[in-house]
Amino acid sequence: MALSDADVSKQIKHMMAFIDQEANEKAEEIDAKAEEEFNIEKGRLVQQQRLKIMEFYERKEKQVELQKKIQSSNMLNQARLKVLKARDDHVLSVLEEGKKRMLLISQDQAKYAQLIESLIAQGLCQLIEGQVTIRCRQVDKTLVENAVTPAVNSIKDVIKRDCQVKVDNENFLPTNCAGGIELYTQKGKIKVDNTLEARLAMIAQQIMPEIRGALFGANPNRKFTD
Fold this sequence. Notes:
Elements: H1 5-102, H2 109-127, E1 131-136, H3 141-159, E2 164-167, E3 180-185, E4 190-195, H4 196-206, H5 208-216
Parallel strand pairs: 1-2
Antiparallel strand pairs: 1-3, 3-4
Helix pairs in contact: 1-4, 2-3
């Protein structure tokens, strides 16, 4: 039996309603899936940026920590250098005080004469030459001349040779010299410095660990004492 126009229209409306419902459900499904994917992608991007921010501040924190260590090390080194400089300055002041006190040695003429004789004898033993010239302070010239003969006689059996010694009458040690002598041979090419300043410098170098120990105490980092 043929459908009437009303039945056809009704069926068309029913089909259209079904299609609309299917379309709406599909659209809602698409929207839900899009929103889910959006939220997933948003979460991924947020997490990615969060990790980047965390890494950035971790690097910054490490840089700050490294900078603090470098600064602390530099400050510690500077402090150590200042301490070492202060100690060196104090040692130098002690040596300078020793030089000033050496000026008193020559005031005791008897002891100073014995010292000059010993310095001449020692210098001759070091040189072991036949011709030696002695240079001294001008104020010590007579004292040195008187000490030459006994000094030479005292070492004849040691050096096993004759030794001609003269005192330089033209060139003298500086007036600010504490005392002692210089010995020359081979036309001045070979020299033995037996001034009191030179002897003090030599002794100070040899016993510098003991000097530092007496002034500043034992060094806990020092492994050897010789």
